[in-house]
Each structure stands twice: as C-alpha cells, then as structure tokens.
C-alpha cells in the first residue's frame, strides 16, 4: 500500500518533467509548425492567371506557425511585388528584413499591396530563422483574395507541363517533351570566297553541329536553337532553325578571326 503511494508520486513527478519538456519543444515554432508544400505560385514572380487560376486567398488561413516548402525558396519578399503577383490579387510582403538566427522569434511588419498602394494595410507577423529555413507566425488576412508572398524566383511548370522556357507563363500539357540525343561538333573545310580566279573557291574552316533529328509524337517537326561557345564563353545563338537548314548555324572563320586564336575550344549547346 505504502509502496504504491510512492510509486504513484514518482510517476507523477516523472510525467511532470516529461510534459514540461514536451511543452518546451511544442513552444518552439522551429519544431512545431505546419508545413505547406507546393506553394510555388506564392512567388513574387508568379503572375495570377485570372482566366485559369483560383487566386490564393489567406482570409481563411488558420492563425499559426507555417513553414513553406517551395522549389523557389522560403524568403518572404522584402519589396512590394506588383498587384496580381504571388498568385493572388493583393500580395502581402515583408516591409522589413528577414531575421537572423540570433534574433530568435521576431515580430515584423507586413504590408498588403493594392492596385494603387504599396501598403494599403499593415500588421505584424512572427518570423523565426531556424538556421536553414524560416517559419512564419501568420494570421489570416482581412481582405478577400490577398495572400502572403513566399519566394521571388520564376516558377517552373508543374510536372507533365512545359512551356517555351519551362517556366510560367504559358505552361501547357500539349507541349512536347523531347530530348535531342548526342550532339557533336564537327569541323571541315568548306568552299569559301574566290580569292584567285584560276583556282576557284578557297577553302575555309567551318564548325557544324551534328545530331539526329527528333520528331513529336504525331510526327511534327521541331525547330532548334544552337548556342556556340568559344573557350567557355557564349558566343553566337541561332534560334528557330529547321533541321534541314542546320548548316546555316555553322560557325565560320569570319565569326572568330580577330577575336580568337588557335587552340580555342569550341562547344555548343542545343537549347
Ligand atoms: C487558360 O487556359 C486555356 C485553356 O487551357 C488556354 O487556352 C489559355 O491560353 C489560358 N489562358 C492564359 C492566359 O494562359
Ligand atoms: C519539401 O519538398 C520536397 C519535395 O517535394 C521533399 O522531398 C521534402 O521532404 C520536403 N521537406 C519538408 C520539410 O517538408
Ligand atoms: C538565418 O540566419 C543566418 C545567420 O544567423 C543567415 O546566415 C541565414 O541566411 C538566415 N536564413 C536562413 C534561411 O537560414
Ligand atoms: C515600411 O515601414 C517603414 C517603417 O515602419 C515605414 O516608414 C514605411 O512607410 C513602410 N513602407 C511602406 C511602403 O509603407
Ligand atoms: C557545316 O559544317 C560541316 C562540318 O564542318 C560541313 O560538313 C557542312 O558542309 C557545313 N555546312 C555549311 C552550309 O557550311
């Protein structure tokens, strides 16, 4: 009986310490937060597509600590993006600097951008630098179709979609995904200008790119961009050339004479 009493007291003390530890961890937003993945469209570079997107709307965002996991970073932009950026009508941005680890949990001012004003409304949020990522203590916005901005890079098309650049805008599923196989630089002597009539054409050095033509699934032809580099420096870019006309992208003497000497390294990239 007595034994049981002390055992119960002991367990209670143990439980007390365990829960004290647990609340300490739960209080640290670096450990206890919600992670929101796939928030690419919150980027300051992402323009809301009014026709096709539903604007991100943080009016319903439950108050709490959030970590954003996006392929374009988790920095809240510290300059006002234009309206309709950040995948919403009224972007919310940080009118301050991002904190250092040593700042601990900081309170910082955010501004909501409207069509006319950089800072129609402002309020404070929490931010903590967790050494490698930030967590944000957010409160719901009071304006419909306003949202917190995260990241400032171009937004890549989602998996299975593509565009001319691989980034928004213009991402479509209809964009064919094809890769050109091995590309080689070949060099040859081709007929050049006639320097001395009796001998006909002179011979000049010409670098060409060689690869196998690729076709779309429905047999459609592609055009190609050819980027020449000499000694690692981008040199000449040809765009939109048909395969049958790829010889017109050749690198010829007139393009390097006076600029490069022997032993230059010529390379190319198809884009
Ligand atoms: C919206 O989607 C339609 C159909 O998917 C497309 O034709 C149109 O170009 C898109 N609008 C914009 C602005 O990208
Ligand atoms: C972030 O997303 C990537 C890719 O989806 C995933 O591999 C990673 O585990 C995620 N990180 C966190 C902290 O959720
Ligand atoms: C966090 O703070 C450190 C210095 O304390 C800084 O170097 C770093 O860039 C900050 N940001 C992130 C995401 O870690
Ligand atoms: C940003 O904050 C500063 C200091 O609080 C304030 O003077 C300034 O007006 C704010 N910027 C904008 C665009 O409102
Ligand atoms: C392009 O260069 C390749 C390799 O030097 C050569 O065989 C081909 O004839 C050249 N084409 C033209 C149009 O100069």
TrEMBL record:
Superkingdom classification of source: Eukaryota
Domain spans labelled UMOD/GP2/OIT3-like D8C: 74-149
N-terminal signal peptide: 1-22
UniProt keyword list: Disulfide bond, Signal
A matching Pfam family: D8C_UMOD
InterPro entries assigned: D8C_UMOD/GP2/OIT3-like (IPR057774)
Name this protein carries in UniProt: UMOD/GP2/OIT3-like D8C domain-containing protein
Gene source species: Mytilus galloprovincialis
